[in-house]
Amino acid sequence: MGRFTDDLAQLRSHIDSTREDRLSEQNARIFSVKAQISDFAATRVSNGIQDANARAAFVNNNANDVNRLVNSFHNFRQVFGRQGREERAAFVNDLSKNTLDLLTGFNVDHKNAAERDAKARADFVSVNKSSVGAYINEAAQDRAGAHAAFFGTGAAKKKTAFIA
Q: How far is C-alpha 11 from the chain's CA centre?
């Protein structure tokens, strides 16, 4: 009976050791995923601030361009108010062309900035999605393996099939 008791004690010791190892690995993975989520949140905040700054700079540049346009319009209006009808018509045509060119430039700049920022955000989210998904799948496989070690492979196959 002594050998049987020693074998059972040794088996229990191995089970406890394996469980402690598995729990420490699982806690390390949980910590890693939490760190990644925290990094993702910090990066998201940082990117949001950069996007807000870029939008503010874009709006500020547009406001400055509009102010310059208004000032130049005012100056030209005073000068051309004294000149003939033909010259005023030419001024209006030129001004409308300049305004159209300016608006086209604004639209192109805005579109390019929006596409560039959207692609950068999509790439960032895709990379984080893949990393977190891999950690979750790895943890699920570890749990299924531990379940199989404690309760047999039949129960683990059911559990793995349910998870997948």
A: 48
